[in-house]
Design brief:
binds adenosine-5'-diphosphate; about 325 residues; binds sodium ion; 2 domains; Tyrosyl-Transfer RNA Synthetase; 13 helices
Length: about 325
Amino acid sequence: AFAHRVFSGIQPSGGLTLGNYLGALKRFAQSQNTGVQSIYCMVDMHAITVWQDPATLTRATRELCAGFIASGIDPEKSILFNQSQVAGHAQLAWVFNCVARMGWMQRMTQWKDKAGKNQQNASLGLFAYPALMAADILLYHATHVPVGEDQKQHVELTRDIAIKFNHDFGVDFFPIPEPVIEGAATRVMSLRDGSKKMSKSDPSDMARINMTDDADAIASKIRKAKTDPEALPSEAEGLEGRAEARNLVRIYAALSDTTVDDVLRDVGGRQFSEFKPMLSDLAVAKLSPISVEMARLMENPSEIDAILARGAERAREIATPVIDRTLEIVGM
Ligand code: ADP
Ligand code: NA
């Protein structure tokens, strides 16, 4: 039996969004008093699967760490570290590149989305991304992986890799990790297109709400958010086929720690012209203390670097025996 251990990663690829906050950071903070060991990684090696300006990457890595801490994740209780500082990720990823099959990778929807029409010109790293993600998780023998809906397929692939490794080498070495997906806004959609997720890695989405946005920027983005002319329904079924409307109600529910049905009980019958200011007041109230704290932390980059270095040391204590034993199993 494997001890309950949580692993999750976020890419330092552009500023954190409301999607990252509701789908990841807020939930990480809420779960940290359960006594379970949690390991959170700034996955800079994933970020460089698409071009990153070096100075921007360095800054984004620190800002991401500041985002974790400002969201309430305590670097003493949880392990916060930077992926490239623990060599085991790259080592284990190579082994998993040799376990995973081409066909498995070709089925990944994120690969298809991110590579777009010009797959021949995408980096090899972007294609192999899910094998590195499997290494991130399994290097710590993590059993639970809190992710947004968008990453569920990659956790399933991680399970396939663990099963195949254990089977091929006749061992029971890697746990088969579970995705943990919960809450009203596990998938926050773009404010201008309810069929696309809000993503910090999508440079074309100027409508995304960043965790560092000020009150005016948040209000203006919510005011411009795409909706429909109908009033809000009084039950969740009334949001069927209304992706943009549903997204705004889900965001409201997640920000206020309640359910879509509870929100609609209060606001059903109102127009979006009334609901949007309520949503932006709520978003500003929840996000502005975090952005203020992020800015304060960013004034001391060396302190952030020290937190990440200490986290990497603690991560290595767990990772080193796992990679050593893996290489031994493989015969290396
Ligand atoms: P991004 O797509 O914004 O670059 P990452 O791929 O780095 O984000 O994912 C970081 C974490 O944030 C993951 O747990 C992911 O599931 C979550 N996440 C990212 N975008 C969203 C979203 N729009 N809604 C909910 N969770 C999200
Ligand atoms: Na992503």
